[in-house]
Request: fold
Amino acid sequence: MRVSTVWYFLAEGWRSARRNVSLISLGTIAASLFVLGALALVLLNLNYISQSLQARIEIRAFLEDGMSPEGVAAVKAQIQGTDGVAQVAFVSKKEGLRRLRRQLGDRAGLLDVVGENPLPDAFDVRVGDPERTAQVAARISRIPGVLGVNYGQGFTEKLLATMRLVGAAGAAVALLFVAAVVFIVGNTIRLTVISRAREIEVMKLVGATDWFIRWPFLVEGMVVGLVGAAMSGLCLFVGYNVAVRYIAELTPFIPIITAPEPVAVLCLALLGIGVLMGVVAGGVFIKRYLRV
Reply:
């Protein structure tokens, strides 16, 4: 393809976009892409929270009382050899009591009523894949010398199931928004195609190829998608960085993405998505008008 031809396509697409795309249409496209980006940020934060919570999931394997150091070492070796185990750390009775006192806070005085330390020695076990926590815990519980295991039974399974459900629902909603944005961009371009249907028919009759006619409309879709995505990406980046400060102050106990890099990457990806959807919409809606 010659440079002059490429320049013609670009110039025609740009002129058509300036002439036919209204501020209302462009605002609608930008708003749709903004909502799509905001939904992506919500999903990213949910995934970040999920990973943070899953990283805290661990199995506490309690040991039988009166075990010798050799026996403790043997149990540790068997736990480390269990399939799925990533890390094992010994927690003595004294250390376990100190942790319990910190967790109880002002109510730590209740432990003084008990008298002697009621906690057994234990191992804290991290699992490589949190989804396998229950399976690994069941294997560890059968090791001789292990009195019992605790990994938040019930809550852990519900947490993982909830995160899977939220991820699937978010992906489904995102696909719906993508389809909606393609439809909006496509309808904007369709109005241009309708207004130039007579011109397209004449071009076909004088021998212009389908691609010669199609390229300006693809460029128009690209321009519309790019400008809309740029507007929404800028608003999204600034808005998120402002909002995240207030969210971090109001809910400091909830881990959220505070680094600007992931948000910047998402905004750049939004530009690519906007361009791609504009091209797809332009190609789909002009196809029927090329059949002369």
User: Anything to note?
Assistant: The longest helix spans residues 155-195. Strands lie at 59-63, 85-91, 122-127, 146-150. The domain at 58-150 is CATH 3.30.70.3040 (Alpha-Beta Plaits).
